[in-house]
Amino acid sequence: MPAPRTVLLTGAAGGLGTLMRDLLPEYGYTLRLFDLRPVDGEPDAIVADLADRDAVREAVRGVDAIVHLAGISLESSFEKILKANIEGTYHLYEAAREEGVGRVVFASSNHATGYTPRPRGDDPLITVGTPHRPDTFYGLSKCFGEDLAQLYWEKHGLETVSVRIGSCFPEPTSVRMLSLWMSPGDGARLLHAALTAENVGHTVVHGSSANTRLWWDLTSARALGYEPRDDSEPYAAKLIAEQGEPAPDDPAHDRLGGHFVTDPPLWPY
Description:
With 269 residues, this protein is α/β, with parallel strands linked by helices. Helix content is 33%, strand content 14%. The protein contains eight helices and seven strands. It is globular, with a radius of gyration of 18 Å.
C-alpha cells in the first residue's frame, strides 16, 4: 500500500500523540491534528470532542488514513469510558466509512487481555490470538474497539490495524514495563508499518520493542514490515536496584494487566 499522504492523528495532545506528532512526519506524512484540548504549538489543530459527529466527520474529510489515539487512557467510570472510548470510536469509524477512508490504525491496549497470565520459564510468548480478558472498563473499551474494527472490515471493507500497546515512553519506568515497553522510535516504526502494509483486513498486533524480557509474540507485527530496533534491557539494572525484583506471588506482576488486576486496583502503576 502506498504511504498515505495526509493522516488524521486523534489524541494529538496526549502523551503518545505528542511523541508521534514529532516522529511520524519523518516518514513523509502530513498530519492533521485532533484533540479535545488545544495542542501546544499547533494553532491549526482541530479542537473538538469525539461526541460531536459533525466535527469528527469534518476532521476526517479528505485524509488518507487515521491514527486513532484519542480517548481516556486510564481507568475511569463506565459512563465516561462509554462516551469517550466507545461512542467516540464508533463516531470516528462512522465518519471514516462515510468519507471513504480506507485505513485506520487503532490504539488498543494490553488491558484488553489484562487477566492473561504472563509467560513463565519456557512458556510460549503471548500471541494476539489470546481471548479478550479485559481488566477494567478501559480494557473493555479496547475490546469493543477491536471488535468494531472487525465489523467495519467485514461489513464495509474498512481496514484496521489494532495495536495492543504496552507502554510507550522515552524509557521504561518500572520493572514490569521492561517486558511491555515500546520506545517512541519503535512506536513510529510500527505505526508506519501499520499504515503502509498491504491487505491487512483487520489485523491485531502487539506494540512493543524487541525486549529481552518480552512477554508478547511480535509475529503479526513483523508480518506488517515492523522491525523493532530497541530493547528495554539497558534500563533493567537501574530499575531493579531502585524497585527490586517483583515477588513471585505478586498479582500485579503475574498478569498482563499489572496492578489493574488487583482488588482494589493499585493506581497509578
